[in-house]
Amino acid sequence: MAYQDIIYATDNGVATITINRPEKRNAFREETLDELIEAFRLAEADREIGVIVLTGAGDKAFCSGGDIAWEHASSPEGAHQLARRTTTLAMIIRGCGKPVIARVRGYAVGGGNELQLLCDLTVASEDAVFGQSGPKMGSVPIWWGTQLLPRLVGEKRAREVVMLCEQYSAEQALSMDWINKVVPAAELDEAVRAWCDRLLGMSPQALRVAKLSLNFESDQLWPSVLHGYQMISFIHGTEEFREGTSAFLEKRPPDFSRFR
Fold first, then answer.
1. 6-186 maps to CATH 3.90.226.10
2. At a CB cut-off of 8 Å and minimum separation 6, what does 4 contact?
3. pTM, whole model, 2 decimals?
């Protein structure tokens, strides 16, 4: 298929999927998610591909999460459609038997951070930034954020990340075991390719079994994701939700005081 929001490229056993919306800090919308699903399916089915790299176009962002203008216009019905797409994408990334590496330059926040959490490995540049922004926007990172983050950084730290909505440098994220590796921006592609080449030298079926086995315990958190989506659908489209998205679009602090 012809892609509008992503770029799909292959090179010596590696499929690179690039979210190509740099003017939106690579925020995703319905079309982006549909294209990501298709690209991951294509890479999974290609016997010449041994490793998949997920990244974002430009040097400003890996992915900044959902497109706020799109989410602002959303309704509970739209939230259900979003849930179907994001859950499908997550299942493909985690269920694919091939290693998936997140190549992170710039912001990986909100749904963008959840997206890199879904990948098997994360290599980031020194100027990368990580964080969640759900409650600041009238939302919650239930798309594997509240499920996977505590397993990596610990429950208390995860509550800090999710509830305070602060942002963290790549070095801070590395020190918390949030990500795997940090390198200077000029060395990012080289570092990612080195890990790809190392993985390509491994037994593909052993890697497949290792990935599925490593996912076994966290796969049992799947009901939490489904329950979270059902609960968050009662928030999307409400006045409280729109206060968060309106504040972002209007570049002002949100005022949630009347909703307490």
1. yes
2. 31, 35
3. 0.94
